[in-house]
Amino acid sequence: PILDLEDIQDASQVPQQHRNEWEQIRALRYKMEQADTERNNIRRKGNMDSLSEGQQQQLERLQQRTEQMQQALEEKEAKLLRALNPRAATSVTAASSSANYL
Fold first, then answer.
1. CA 8 to CA 14: how far, in whole Å?
2. Tell me: the pLDDT tens digits for 28-37?
3. 60 Cβ neighbours under 8 A, 6+ residues apart
């Protein structure tokens, strides 16, 4: 079983029925990296001069977008892990439910 998505080196390790989800996860990771790069570029330019209003707004938009993508990424990763490891997901859910009653 695949217990961590970071262990997947390429799509051939993911069953065909889950490859679309895997590709969506990879796309989100790529978009987040690109947003980080853009934020770093804006900040680097701002270190030379002060940031313009437009740059500040762009930084805020990128930050909000990154937070949304991070949440979507976490949800998609959890869903895929549950699909790849149905017994492990059931055990974890049952264990956490039991812990709530103790």
1. 8
2. 999 999 999 9
3. none
